């Protein structure tokens, strides 16, 4: 139930981002892209540390492989694929 609700929130966020992008100047869009790039760098640094296996099992946190796949998909969607 929570995942479905969070998925709806994410979809709304993408819709808002796409809409607002049409309202921004080229310079503002470049600043947003740079902020996204920096956020991805921070995610890479955070993911360099493996989640506790107990939390992966009991809470459902993604393991290192799943984290890498999720981050790779985010980079692809944001057009930052390495």
How would you sum up this structure in a few lines?
The protein has helices at 2-21, 26-47, 53-58, 64-77. The longest helix has 22 residues, at 26-47.
- Give a quick account of the main beta sheet: strands, pairing sense, barrel closure: none
Structural class: mainly alpha
From N to C, what is the helix and strand string?
A: HHHH
Using the alpha-carbon principal axes, give the shape.
flat
Instruction: Kindly report the average pLDDT value.
Output: 89
- Binned strand content: under 5%
Helix tally?
A: 4
Record field, number of beta strands: 0
- Terminal CA distance reads 33 Å
**Uncertain runs:** none
What gyration radius follows from the Cα positions, in whole Å?
15 Å
Percent range of helical residues: over 70%
Oligomer state equals single chain
Describe the model.
By secondary structure, this protein is an all-alpha fold. Helices cover 76% and strands 0% of the residues. The chain has helices at residues 2-21, 26-47, 53-58, 64-77. The termini are far apart.
Layout of helices and strands, plus pairs?
Layout: H1 2-21, H2 26-47, H3 53-58, H4 64-77
Helix pairs in contact: 2-4
Entry keywords:
82 residues; mainly alpha; 4 helices; 76% helix
